[in-house]
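S1.2 Input.
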Amino acid sequence: MRRPARGGGVALGAEGCRRTARRAGALLLAWMVLAGAAAAATLDDQVYAIAGQLMCPVCAGQTVAESDSALAREMRTIIRQRLQAGETRDQILRYFIAQFGESVLAEPRPGGVAMILYGATPVALILGVAVAVLFIRRRGAHSSSQEAP
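S1.3 Output.
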């Protein structure tokens, strides 16, 4: 059973609403600050993710993300500008391929000769399992035929 509110029930309700509004405002402000920081981190993450897929043209064995050469810094700046302009990762990679050729990619695209590299492992695994199964079956059939006489 509920007891009726005594004296000032309306005032307490209004104060509760004010507290809730203040908390909601504080949460909204905190969310806006965190969203702004997350957006900046996301752009940096995108820049370094794309830069990690490109080899530095002047450094031996380093990606654009790892290198500290002037060209690598310039490439990271171009990546950032293009991301801010709304370009996708593939568009940016195609831009750098047009500038430096396919050798700028840290990982070869699947196609042509590279398909042999990508497909060889699963094919070898399947063939190895098939050979092992055939060997086991033949060995089992051979040993059971010797036990029969």
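S1.4 Remarks. Helices lie at 9-51, 70-84, 89-100, 114-147.
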